[in-house]
Amino acid sequence: MALFEPLTLTGSLVKLQPLRVRHLPELQDAVRDGELWRLWYTQIPSPLTMELEIRRRLELQDHGRMLPFTVRRLSDNTVLGMTSFCHIDEAAPRVEIGYTWNRASAQGTGTNPDSKLQLMGHAFETLGCCAVEFRTDRLNRQSRDAIERLGARQDGVLRRHTKMPDGRIRDTVVYSVLDSEWPDVKARLRKRVDKERRP
């Protein structure tokens, strides 16, 4: 049996549920919050391309290359965005958490740290991963700061690595957290999530 099978992960602030085509209207609404597809330094689907992106992720799942989730806030059942396990290496095992975006109004509310807490906890504690990886555009300072706040360490830079929608070839910064580092990272994430849960 494959390690990376569709499942639901529930935290304190969010629930990560298997991505489905029926989530399309809610995901279109989420991406309109902040018009995230207009950000030049990232690749986020627009309302018009959202269905294609959902189906692309599900096709990758069918081939064992991705495990995509819809992120839903527990307090009001609002869909916030998407995330996934990707670059899956079941032999190690090792995985990347990526292709993540969240509606603008939810950013800074603890929902993303809670999402990471659930994903990394599953990767390390259930699947026995030796490392969890993160990748982002070298120019995306917001994403790099967020990854570094997790406690991930930079492994290196893949120069001229990925073509962006505007034709630019980006440099990709690669970070990781090792299994031996997970307890400290977990404690840091838990502290951030608990802070947001306080009345």
TrEMBL record:
Residues 15-153 form the N-acetyltransferase domain. Gene3D superfamilies: 3.40.630.30. Signal peptide: none annotated. This is GNAT family N-acetyltransferase. It comes from Arthrobacter sulfonylureivorans.
